[in-house]
Amino acid sequence: MTGSPIEAALRKLIGVTIPPHFGDEKVPAFRPHMTITSDIPDNLDPKEVLGKISLSGLLEVSFKELNIGLLSKEMGVGYVKVFRKTYYTRGTLHLERTPAIVGLARQCRELFANGGTEEEAVDKWEKEVFTPHVSLVYSAMEPIPDNMRKAIGKDLQEANIGVLHWNGPKGEMRGWKGGSIVLVSTHNPIEEWEAMAERRL
């Protein structure tokens, strides 16, 4: 996704277009990404972690639906702390649960999450928690007004980003192929999130 039109469109939405809807709240900016898993211990070697991941074929990411204001499963990472303030994932593009995405997430979870996870626990996580998504905004606002939901939906359409149930124009961007898998330290404020290792898919 790096350097692609879809990345540029998402960066603008996340950093420029969507934040003004939240008024005086300074919602944080961040790099566009699809979250795979959390709970990877700090004591693991980042390059070794990415080196052990087995990939089969080109990963395809497809946007399924826009979710604004609803706190869903979000893979157990529905909120982040920034200078003692809690920001919730208030806007996401939920993704198609393809076998490739589910398989990659299960592999990462089983090999590395919490230092390694039993298959039974991974099964439960996949069925009850795992929601593949691309976050668009983190905010402390509650509730999200209906007019804001509509405005953000319009923002996406004007950015030429669509989801499966929209009947958008030909050429609309509805996902991407390939990209990179990145191991990120999220202990600091979002603006200081650090990519510890990166591997092209």
TrEMBL record:
Gene3D superfamilies: Cyclic phosphodiesterase. GO terms for molecular function: 2',3'-cyclic-nucleotide 3'-phosphodiesterase activity. It comes from the Eukaryota. The lineage of its organism: Eukaryota, Fungi, Dikarya, Ascomycota, Pezizomycotina. One of its GO terms (biological process) is cyclic nucleotide metabolic process. This is 2',3'-cyclic-nucleotide 3'-phosphodiesterase. Pfam families: CPDase. InterPro entries: Cyclic-nucl_3Pdiesterase, Cyclic_Pdiesterase. PANTHER family: 2',3'-CYCLIC-NUCLEOTIDE 3'-PHOSPHODIESTERASE (PTHR28141:SF1).
